[in-house]
Amino acid sequence: MSGDVDCEQLREIGPELALGVLSGWERAEAVAHLDRCADCREYVRQLTQVGDRLVGLLPDREPPPGFETRVARGLARRAGVSEGQRRAPGRSRPGPHRGARRPRVRVAVVGATLAVAVGFAGWAIGTAVEEVVASPPATEQSEPVMVGDMTPAGRGGQDVGEVYAHPGPPGWVFVSVALTGSRHDGPVTCYLDRPDGTSLRAGDFTLRDGHGNWGVAVPGDLTRYSAARLVSSDGTVLATAQLQKAQVTTSQA
Amino acid sequence: MLFVRRFQHRVFGVARAVTGDQQLAEDVAQQTFERAWRHAQIYDSRRGSVMTWLTSIAHNLAVDAVRARRTEPMAPEDLEDLLDAVTETPERWALADEASAQVRAALARLPREQARALMMAGIYGMTARQVADAERIPLGTAKTRIRTAMAKLRTATASAKRGDHVR
């Protein structure tokens, strides 16, 4: 990498860099310059923001019928695969994303990042379940699922989250929780309770300001479980959910 | 509020605008949610909203999809329609944040040839060379149009942050 690009040249190619349309070698030289020039980093950061806002102007559009369900099924399938394979890098189904990614400079111009873990699969599955239960379409496939609304422990009242569990195999459980009253920060443990009083520790995840979303593969028959609990590290039960059996029905469009 | 339901119109809208193809757009939109899920741990709330993050993922995937599939990145009539769509100001945009409103207004004020070049690069992911070929102009002219248009939008964004109103 020659690093020959100076500030003046960077100002010339910055817009194309920010939009991700520079050729590979031009981009490499520009990024090399950004590594050592804070002013140009800021310049490109602003241009990248302009590019994001430009894309943000694109109009929303109604997706095809059944889109939510297909997304949910895709995520569920991936949940099983990823847990079953314990992450097989580079293995993904054929599609547009298999090609080289666009050389956006976002990462290059941003320093250390604070990663905030957000799991989306629970929402996605919930979308499918809610829709299908509300108004079942013509079905071709039906799958069992365990669902439950989370309520604050001991206080009842408004729902603070959702639990979805796919009996499997492979079984998996997703939890989405927003404990708006507690602002709890830190690790919590999710337990699945059986009617006989025994429990399975499904796993741990972290809440930030009372919010967290998490999923994990769970061995065994999940229909044996009747409830889920979230417990803080000091043993306080934060929220509970009674699990009910339901069916996810999907129409193959 | 459930995640897919909340963001699907945005994600699909981006995918459909870039690809111009209903089926390809659905594939892209679905992959957007799958990628978001797989890479949720790298979402950085300081760098923008979840909406912005998903929009960016959808846009990148859509551009990749178009690049992999087509020799011509976009049809000229699609560009004109899209340019009209993003510069219109119906009531539903009234609630958009100030910076986005300023970018929209600035885009509408650009000379048409600059706006076209910017849309080709910024929305369809076309290189300056591709813009030059599509518009039948020299490469340097294409680069100048992209650069000038971006500079004007950057100024508009900066004005919005300062609370100015660009007229």
From TrEMBL, chain A:
Q: Where are the compositionally biased (Basic residues) regions?
A: 88-103
> What residue ranges are annotated as transmembrane?
107-126
Region feature (Disordered): 75-103
Q: Does the keyword Transmembrane helix apply?
A: yes
Task: Name the InterPro entries for this protein.
Answer: Anti_sigma_zinc_sf
Keyword list, A-Z:
Membrane, Transcription, Transcription regulation, Transmembrane, Transmembrane helix
List the protein's name. Answer: Anti-sigma factor
- Species the sequence originates in: Streptomyces capoamus
From TrEMBL, chain B:
Where's the RNA polymerase sigma-70 region domain? 3-70
Q: Which residues form the RNA polymerase sigma factor 70 region 4 type domain?
A: 102-153
Recorded hits in InterPro entries, A to Z, give: RNA_pol_sigma-70-like (IPR039425), RNA_pol_sigma-70_dom (IPR014284), RNA_pol_sigma70_r2 (IPR007627), RNA_pol_sigma70_r4_t2 (IPR013249), RNA_pol_sigma_r2 (IPR013325), RNA_pol_sigma_r3/r4-like (IPR013324), WH-like_DNA-bd_sf (IPR036388)
**Database matches in Pfam families:** Sigma70_r2 (PF04542), Sigma70_r4_2 (PF08281)
This protein's UniProt keywords: Sigma factor, Transcription, Transcription regulation
GO MF annotations, alphabetized = DNA binding; sigma factor activity
**UniProt record, GO biological process:** DNA-templated transcription initiation
PANTHER family, A to Z: RNA POLYMERASE ECF-TYPE SIGMA FACTO, RNA POLYMERASE SIGMA FACTOR SIGZ
Q: Which family does it belong to?
A: Belongs to the sigma-70 factor family. ECF subfamily.
Q: What is this protein called?
A: RNA polymerase subunit sigma-70
